[in-house]
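Here is one chain, start to finish.
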Amino acid sequence: MRTFMGIFLPKEILDYLYDIQDKLKKELPGKINWVHKSKIHFTLKFLGNIEGKKINAIKERLKRIEFESFKVKLDKIGVFPDESFVRVIWVGLKPAERMGKLQKLVDMELLDLFPKNQEFNIHVTLGRVNSA
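Its structure:
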């Protein structure tokens, strides 16, 4: 099962991001797979393909994390890996410090299960460029 840990965003932010997608659809030529409004989220950690039986162990570890709630604001629109070869269209979030701190706590709880170090970029994916 392909798995990640994420945070879904409030309806007002989803509505706003959906409006941005609509505008970008008109401005950007090419085949882009736009993330459906109901699936737009902020990813804390991508776990990859894992067995379903490991889910409960992951949940138990994540329950140990204590973290105060916080508000986020949308930042600039960007692309990965760069403007000369666009694969992903995203919107940044801030304050980066709070989200980065939460992500590190998640990493620490799961380090022995998922030791692979992954680069953490604070963003919400709006669309992926179709390579075909």
